[in-house]
Amino acid sequence: MSSLRDNIWWGPPRKFLDRVMERRISWLELFYDLVYVGVISQLTTRFAEHCTAHGLMEFLFYFCFIFWSWMNGSYYHDLHGSAGIRTRYYTLLQMLGVAAVGIALPYVWEGEFVAFSITFGLVQILITWLWFSVGYYDPEHRPFNRIYTLFYGVSICMFLLSIWASKELVPWLWGIALFMNYAVFIAAWPNTTRRMRALGQNFMISNAIVERLGLFTIIVLGESILGIMHGAGQLDIRSANTWIEFALCTTITFLMWWIYFDILGEMEIRQHYSSLLFLIIYFIPLLAAFACSGISFNMMLHAGDDVHDLFPRLLFGGCMITILLSVYGLHYISVEDPEDEEMVKKLINILLVSAVAVIVFLLFGLHLPLLYFLLGFFAIFFIAVYIGTKKWFRHMMRKQAAEKS
Question: Which of 59, 198, 202, 267 could form a disulfide with 47 if both were Cys (CB 3.0 to 4.6 A apart)?
Answer without folding.
Answer: 59
